[in-house]
Amino acid sequence: MGNTDLPAYGAGASTIAMALLFGSITFATAAMTAKSYISGDYRVFAIASNPKSSPLVATYASVYTLFRQCTIFGGILFMAYLCEYHPPFAHSEKYYDRDEFFMLTGLLIFASAFTLNKNDGKAASGQKSPPENAPRVNIVKPTSAANDVLNRDQTEEWKGWMQFMFLLYHYYHAEEVYNSIRIMITCYVWMTGFGNFSFFYLKADYSLVRVLQMLWRLNFLVIFLCLTQGTTYILYYICPLHTYFFLMVYVAMRLFKNLNYTRYGLRLKL
After folding, report:
1. Burial status of residue 58 (CB atoms within 10 A of its CB: 0-12, 13-18, 19 or more)
2. What is the maximum alpha-carbon separation in the chain?
3. Residue 127 φ then ψ, to 5°
4. Which tens digits make up the pLDDT trace of 45-99?
């Protein structure tokens, strides 16, 4: 009853490698859990249950937290593999119902109306100003986080709406709205470029750490899915798109970065 796309010889080499990797991590996590439980060191459980984004340090609690999170991630990948190649229930054909599709969209609009609030700047997550030492020409009036064009709250709201439509489109295979979805994908990719442009313009952080952080955030899940499922990178085409536009914006802003704060330099670069 599995997926017919599964190779006749079974799981691929990358899938087996991922199974060995996460299987070893899971075994190590179980062993560390048993050791902590037997020794009565319950502190590591509390730390691992509330992980914080911080560098890995050479402590038992830090290593245990990493292994535990990797075990959870491995479990998610395992479930994805099972649902794709050995589903407990046979995959059904997608059926498009226009009335149901637009009813769900209307319900989202109705529910969202109850979350409206005034963006007065008190709780807005706005951007900071450019670095004080940046040779910027004051060509626009200062703005607050509440009235910036495409401020963080606006773009996050926009992305949320489009993500909902992406999921609904793929769930129903709604070919009727195909062109609209293509436009939304274009908008989403554009916002990736806009967001990274804003970051580089305001923070002037072109470090290797920033580049690696962004590449990791954009691609880490896709890479592990490719290795686990035996699929190709281009299958998840939206991630290569985002990666390309991030690198394009980075190169454009990094080269001759002193021109970024002149009246016409940035316009010519873009």
Report:
1. exposed
2. 67
3. -85, 155
4. 888 888 777 777 888 888 999 999 999 999 999 999 998 888 888 888 888 888 9
CA 205 to CA 224: how far, in whole Å? 28
Q: Which of 105, 108, 147 is nearest to 124 (CA)?
A: 147
pTM of the model: 0.75
Angle at 196 between CA 190 and CA 198, to 5 degrees: 100
Amino acid at 113: A
Do residues 206 and 131 lie in contact, with contact meaning Cβ atoms separated by under 8 Å?
A: no
| pLDDT tens string 110-150 | 988 888 877 665 544 444 555 555 554 444 445 455 567 77
Q: What is the pLDDT of residues 164-220, one digit of tens each?
A: 999 999 998 888 999 999 999 999 988 888 888 988 988 888 999 999 999 999 999
Q: What is the DSSP string of 79-109?
A: HHHHHHHS-SSPPPPP---HHHHHHHHHHHH
Tracing tokens 């997550």 back to the chain, one arrives at 125
Output DSSP code: residue 59.
Answer: S
